[in-house]
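This part of the workshop introduces the protein records we will be handling. A record pairs a protein's sequence with a compact description of its fold. Comparing a sequence with its tokens is the quickest way to learn the format. The record below serves as our worked example for the rest of this section:
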Amino acid sequence: MPPRDLIQLPGNTLEGGGQLVRISIGLSSLLSLPIHIPRIRAGRPAGGGLKAQHLTCVNWLSKARDARTVGAEKKSRELEFWPSIKDTNHREVFWTKEPPKRIININIGTPGSMTLTVQAVLPYIIFAASETEAESVNVKNNAPGTIELRIIGGTNVSHSPSVEYLDQVMFPILSAHVLPRELPPLRMEVSKRCWAIGSNDSLGKATFWIPTMPFGSAIPAFEMKDRGEITKICASIIVPEVEISKFKKALIDEDIGTELEIIIEEDSGHPKRFYLLLVAHTSNGYKLGRDLLYNRFDHKKMAPESETATYMVETCLKALKKEIEHGGCVDEFMQDELVVFQALASGRSFVYAGRGVEEGSLHTQTARWVAETLTGIVFDSEGKFGVEGVGLKAGSLEWENKS
């Protein structure tokens, strides 16, 4: 095997957090590109380095991709990730004739965010097709399959998307507007919650059903440029039972300018656990979400006299209205989730995020930087931030567009 040069991805670039690690190892695994990440989370408290959730992603992808690693341990501030250059049987773990083999179990071991773990492994699983399965008499017309991903960890964790956000915003947008239309939709189900706030007697459990693309296929270029009109706002309220009525009243009392539908009313089971998600639905099938996981310190600092329900509803609604006003098809958080799919798609993909926010958050800029550094593609700034993707084919290491 000829030597390959490590691609340098300093971990303190731009946002400089765990997202850089997750996207880097995800794309490295798919494209068979060896990477070196020094200064991992260097600006974070307690010295930064890999936490349990980051390490879980590294370990799982290294096993799935037959990758050699250096520095894959907790608190490590430097990581080398060398995926196998051979497109061999490492993908067969995802496609076998026995349905139980299509189940993947990942245990973070802490209340670390399971949704961020999904962010890291989702693209790899979607592309993990097998030529053996495609040729099987049990699979007609090269039809796609579905993998069941079971994760143990945290469901509602600070500084990460909630499972509700994945279920109501991220998964529907990917299924309807990004992935090939013939694929079944992404789905998920939570069997037990685990919060970052308050002590937990056990970790959370959730199952994610992820379709895999047919062997040799690619994600077609996609455009998100016209969201249509706002048709309704859906609310998910997960708070102590005695507080649910206060949240409902606070929402009803607000002038939201459209239909309000409360789709989840759930007892959080703990006096300190409060979570609110608001999702604006549009006539063209887009969804914009903003949420708030209760932080008593921030609440008392910013609005010491206000009721928790009033504070959370007003804060969350203000953020959502800002998302609505800019006119984009996606919210700030979904914008950075789409970068990897834009980079992997076949052809030129556009995502209109709204007036004045095309450049995106630091997370979005970081995701673009990683994708550009690894593949040579370039995101332009012509109104929608389009990019010519590499056209990766499922089940192989072949790219259509190698810059």
Observations:
- The first strand starts at residue 7 and ends at 8.
- The CA atoms of residues 87 and 193 lie 38 Å apart.
